[in-house]
Design brief:
187 residues, Rossmann fold, 42% helix, 16% strand
Length: 187
């Protein structure tokens, strides 16, 4: 069983990546294979609404997205993690969500997988961003476990998220719940 964390922050080694790695470590402790994918530096363009993906499992845009789509399609669990940018997920994460969703949804390739969101914010916008990411999981048929609170942590400068004890514990418990649910579904 394999869990993938997708980090939609354009900043490498930042708070969102730290929080996602923390959740993945909790999952790995339960014996699952984990992988971190950072979208930073990748060429992922927005959907151009050509409609080809409705008929075929492919995308006409030639960028870095389709190999990532195949990796998450093969995974058993997926975490999408984004910092809050102007009250929302990053444009990079939105492009990733839109295009993977459009390609996969007609085929229900994600239905029955386990997953959920992680959000990092400096001050506000976390609830909308959390909901925005969660809606993607619900629409695509994922099973979404809870945690001990919303999957949100606070921090601005690199590393500050580690000072949010409740946020770190919530991400850890979320990782444990992903592993638990996945084992129940696959066991």
């Amino acid at each position: 069983m394999r869990a993938i964390g997708v980090v939609g922050s354009p900043r490498r080694n930042g708070n969102t990546e730290i929080l996602t790695n923390h959740a993945l470590k909790a999952i790995a402790e339960e014996g699952l294979e984990t992988e971190l994918i950072t979208l930073s530096g990748l060429d992922i363009r927005p959907c151009n609404a050509c409609g080809v993906c409705r008929e075929e499992e492919r995308c006409t845009i030639e960028d870095d997205l389709f190999p990532l789509y195949n990796r998450i399609k093969e995974a058993d669990a997926v975490i999408l993690a984004s910092p809050v940018y102007y009250g929302s997920a990053t444009a990079l994460m939105k492009a990733f969500m839109e295009r993977t969703g459009h390609i996969g949804n007609p085929r229900r390739v994600f239905a029955g997988k386990v997953g959920g969101p992680l959000v990092v914010t400096r001050r506000a916008g976390e609830n909308f961003t959390h909901a925005q990411l969660a809606f993607w999981f619900h629409l695509l048929g994922f099973y979404v476990p809870g945690s001990t609170y919303w999957n949100v942590a606070f921090g601005r400068e690199k590393g500050e998220v580690t000072k949010d004890e409740e946020g770190m514990n919530t991400a850890w418990n979320f990782g444990k719940n992903i592993a638990f649910l996945l084992k129940k579904l696959k066991g």
